[in-house]
């Protein structure tokens, strides 16, 4: 059936919803940190994340492009509590092989699902020029994005929609060890996905690690003031994605995820500019993403 | 001129005082009457400094704030005539997500004696007790000799949950 075939092709490319936008602070690029936000302070982060999947294997031969522009606001509600809200703008474009070998484009764009996350600063050990922090967090993705988009062919499949229609909780814990020379962040997180629209995305268990090493100014920090830093960044992710279920689920989904992400960060008192490229070493069934470049901008208010 | 109990704190105090009065950054400005130098623990990147500066500057009476990331230190100048208590600085640093370490205070103020207790006035209704320090005996002798106005360099300490001072150097005005 034509719709089923297109459906499979789209699913190949759109496990891209799993592209969780990294959080703010001057920490990792692809996930969050346990570093503080001053009480009443606000951090704004804007990102551009491009995911391109070239022609995949038969029978789908799907080519996908997703550009995500998430806007993240971080608010220091209390010395121990930080609130984050994320609103992504998504542009999705997939080209699939239709009946008779014709290539068919399916496109959509608009705001996706809003996510809200609470992070508790549970433990901190501060010393001169260094800090160790542990912060558990809990989040909820709300079904604010459109989940019933259709084009001239049919209703778009679940992973092609801007929103999922489901309420998806998540939880985890972050450990951050920061010194004047480097920062190490580690995060364990779990994402539970509820069913909506006869589709239930697979659950996810994820481990992230980020190492940022100061390369400018090089060596021991001397003199007064607050110089602008440049960090060389290396991040890694290992995750397990459960299979999608439901009548509208793709035939192939779920599996291991391993990604390595080198990057650079320019960090000043007020701003952070950063760029990184995620390279998938292992991907869930049906995915064939080559690289995920991203650039990001953060500002303190 | 009166002297503290040993020369090292005095030299340190004089350096601070001279630096305040004649340093290039201060050449065109009036020297502040009160300056806090605070060790800030847990501060290790430029982006984190923003919140600290904002919290300190938001305090009533605070003038200039300068942060040295490499030295893990914040310097807070109090506006002439204003009063900023040390616990307010500690609270501001906590609100920024960090921990205040040692606080050193360099100020010009009136030192009063009430029995054995010396105290320095920060403002009309605010004073800090001087409870110790290497220069305490010399300061006491100077006060008993009739001097009242001093330049002091002191470390802020907590005594029974109240801020007090240990004076390391002084200079009668």
Give a short summary of the structure.
The complex is a heterodimer of chains A (301) and B (173). With 301 residues, chain A is mostly beta strands.
- Strand proportion of chain A: over 45%
Mean pLDDT of chain A: 88
Main sheet overview of chain B: 5 strands, mixed, barrel
* Greatest interface: A-B, 40 and 30 residues
- Helix proportion of residues of chain A, in percent? under 10%
DSSP, total strands of chain A: 14
State the major sheet of chain A. Answer: 12 strands, antiparallel, barrel
Q: Mean pLDDT score of chain B, rounded?
A: 84
Total strands of chain B: 8
Oligomer: heterodimer
Order of strands across the widest beta sheet of chain A?
1-2-3-5-7-8-9-10-11-12-13-14
The first-to-last residue Cα distance of chain A is: 53 Å
| Overall shape of chain A | globular
Give the SSE map.
The complex is a heterodimer of chains A (301) and B (173).
Chain A: H1 2-13, E1 42-53, E2 63-76, E3 81-97, E4 103-111, E5 115-120, E6 123-127, E7 130-141, E8 168-179, E9 182-191, E10 204-216, E11 229-241, E12 255-267, E13 271-282, E14 292-300
Antiparallel strand pairs in A: 1-2, 1-14, 2-3, 3-4, 3-5, 5-7, 6-7, 7-8, 8-9, 9-10, 10-11, 11-12, 12-13, 13-14
Chain B: H1 7-22, E1 34-41, H2 46-57, E2 62-68, E3 73-78, H3 86-95, E4 99-114, E5 117-123, E6 126-132, H4 136-144, E7 149-159, E8 162-172
Parallel strand pairs in B: 6-8
Antiparallel strand pairs in B: 1-3, 1-4, 2-3, 4-5, 4-7, 5-6, 7-8
Overview of this protein structure:
The complex is a heterodimer of chains A (301) and B (173). Helix content of chain A is 4%, strand content 52%. Chain A has one helix spanning 2-13, and strands at 42-53, 63-76, 81-97, 103-111, 115-120, 123-127, 130-141, 168-179, 182-191, 204-216, 229-241, 255-267, 271-282, 292-300. The radius of gyration of chain A is 20 Å and the shape is globular. In chain B, 39% of the residues are buried. Chain B has a five-stranded mixed barrel. The model of chain B is unreliable at 1-31 (pLDDT under 50). The termini of chain B are close together. With 173 residues, chain B is α+β, with helices and mostly antiparallel strands. Chain B has helices at 7-22, 46-57, 86-95, 136-144, and strands spanning 34-41, 62-68, 73-78, 99-114, 117-123, 126-132, 149-159, 162-172. The chains are: A mainly beta (301), B alpha+beta (173). Chains A and B meet through strand 6 of A and helix 2 and strand 2 of B.
